[in-house]
Structure to design on (356 residues):
């Protein structure tokens, strides 16, 4: 039959040149589609003489099969090429080091403050706060520390700068957390049960002192609070904090803001230069305390004829050192990343009453 060779050559050529699936489909329609050239030729078979049909039929069928096979082969080749190209483009070097994801740590002082707050919260104490730049009235006078009292010198106070001619009473960097007692009682009155953890400042710097350090204050005022309550609360606290029963020893002392006053020691032992809290028969001083002085209640607007209670103040930094075996106080405030990574806590190591 005429033309078959040309038709074959033309379509095979077009298939070879088709650069993508769309072009290939156009070629398929032109050859084998309903109105495609080969389909039309096949329709003509009906009008042929039997003789003609005998040779044209198989030739057309063979052509159709050949074109069909060529389309498939070309399609497979195009798909392979597309895949190769994508694989070349989208490769990933899984041997590269992973991107770093820096993670901070919680400072031991922050962690310990949270632990302490959790233990005292369990005993009904709320957290109170006060300013670090404090009036000297709150820091001293209201706490029954008169201007000429030697405690003012003992505290090595930092005074805030005053311009010449500025005769306002001086502000100080608070030397202890005790002024928060005054502010809390002024704000809330009695009864009251609060702790006040925070920064305090004294002009002092040596092996065991830094000009800024941390204290926690405790205050409980009600109608019938006694030193027996104080002793129970402190023993309960130390036992929860150190995770084992800790005995306390009260020694008579003097603070202007409490009467009577006591310094409190916790039971400990030294084994091979290692300190262990809650065992043995040595004692270590850890806090000052007493029954809040009537003058202090009165300066905070509370009637000492109606109300009474205890207060205590304790250094936080040393409590952190004792619990977590941290040897040097000054390292607490040097912001050395190696130290922070070593002694710091993970963000998810939530302090709880039952945590180790
Ligand atoms: N404020 C005292 C200090 O910094 C500690 C203290 C002692 C606080 C006795 C108190 C207390 O509340 O009752 O040395």
């Amino acid at each position: 039959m005429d033309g078959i060779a040309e038709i074959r050559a033309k379509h095979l050529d077009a298939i070879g040149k088709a650069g993508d699936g769309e072009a290939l489909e156009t070629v398929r329609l032109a050859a084998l589609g309903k109105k495609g050239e080969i389909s039309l030729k096949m329709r003509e078979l009906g009008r042929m003489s039997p003789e003609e049909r005998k040779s044209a039929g198989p030739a057309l069928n063979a052509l159709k099969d050949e074109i069909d096979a060529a389309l498939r082969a070309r399609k497979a080749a195009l798909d392979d090429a597309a895949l190769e190209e994508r694989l070349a483009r989208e490769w990933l070097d899984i041997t590269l080091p992973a991107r770093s994801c820096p993670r901070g740590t919680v400072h031991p002082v922050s962690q310990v403050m949270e632990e302490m707050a959790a233990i005292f919260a369990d005993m009904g104490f709320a957290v109170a706060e006060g300013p670090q730049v404090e009036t000297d009235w709150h820091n001293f006078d209201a706490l029954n520390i008169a201007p000429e009292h030697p405690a003012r010198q003992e505290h090595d106070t930092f005074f805030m700068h005053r311009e010449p001619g500025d005769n306002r009473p001086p502000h100080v960097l608070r030397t202890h957390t005790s002024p928060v007692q005054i502010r809390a009682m002024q704000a809330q009155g009695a009864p009251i049960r609060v702790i006040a953890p925070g920064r305090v400042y004294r002009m002092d710097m040596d092996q065991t002192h830094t000009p800024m350090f941390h204290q926690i204050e405790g205050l409980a005022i009600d109608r019938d609070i006694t030193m027996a309550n104080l002793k129970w609360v402190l023993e309960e606290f130390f036992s929860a904090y150190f995770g084992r029963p800790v005995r306390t020893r009260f020694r008579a002392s003097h603070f202007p803001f409490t009467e009577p006053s006591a310094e409190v020691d916790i039971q400990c032992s030294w084994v091979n230069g290692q300190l262990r809290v809650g065992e043995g028969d040595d004692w270590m001083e850890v806090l000052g305390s007493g029954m809040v002085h009537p003058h202090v209640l009165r300066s905070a607007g509370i009637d000492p004829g109606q109300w009474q209670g205890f207060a205590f103040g304790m250094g936080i930094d040393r409590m952190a050192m004792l619990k977590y075996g941290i040897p040097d106080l000054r390292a607490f405030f040097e912001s050395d990343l190696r130290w922070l990574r070593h002694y710091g806590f993970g963000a998810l190591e939530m302090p709880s009453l039952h945590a180790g």
Summary: The chain is about 40% helix and 20% strand. Residues 50-89 form the longest helix (40 residues).
